[in-house]
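Inverse folding, one chain.
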């Protein structure tokens, strides 16, 4: 049986200059390019303010980590969490697929909407009693 080497530590980024990874190096190059553009375009006082803000932002994005993960993963997860709905409801019976035969003999699947009656307050009370009594209580239904 042949043996194969399994790669280890695949989540570690490659280092190019000392402890600096390729991603960090490229981000700092971009920030220095923006600083150069600010130097050519803006007045000196505005250049200083814009440069400090830009270098600080890019340094935070390049070097900061939250729970051992780069900050851009944290920001991406944060945005995805904000966009998700607050309440998720599992409704298995919302749509039922029904197979329908067509004249040519080929089956065609059609999604048919399935509506359940809303649960009434008395039904909820009965269900609560069943759960609280461990199944001893039986409703009238």
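Residues assigned per position:
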């Amino acid at each position: 049986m042949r043996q194969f080497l399994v790669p280890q530590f695949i989540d570690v980024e490659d280092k190019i200059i000392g402890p600096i990874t390729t991603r960090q190096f490229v981000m700092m190059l971009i920030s220095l390019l923006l600083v150069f553009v600010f130097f050519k375009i803006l007045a000196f006082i505005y250049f200083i303010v814009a440069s400090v803000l830009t270098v600080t932002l890019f340094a935070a994005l390049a070097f900061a980590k939250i729970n051992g993960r780069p900050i851009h993963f944290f920001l991406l997860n944060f945005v995805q969490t904000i966009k998700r709905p607050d309440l998720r409801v599992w409704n298995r019976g919302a749509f039922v697929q029904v197979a329908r035969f067509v004249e040519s003999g080929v089956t065609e699947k059609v999604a048919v909407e399935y509506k359940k009656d809303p649960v009434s307050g008395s039904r909820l009370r009965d269900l609560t009693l069943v759960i609280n009594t461990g199944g001893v209580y039986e409703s009238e239904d």
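The longest strand covers residues 95-101. Residues 22-41 form the longest helix (20 residues).
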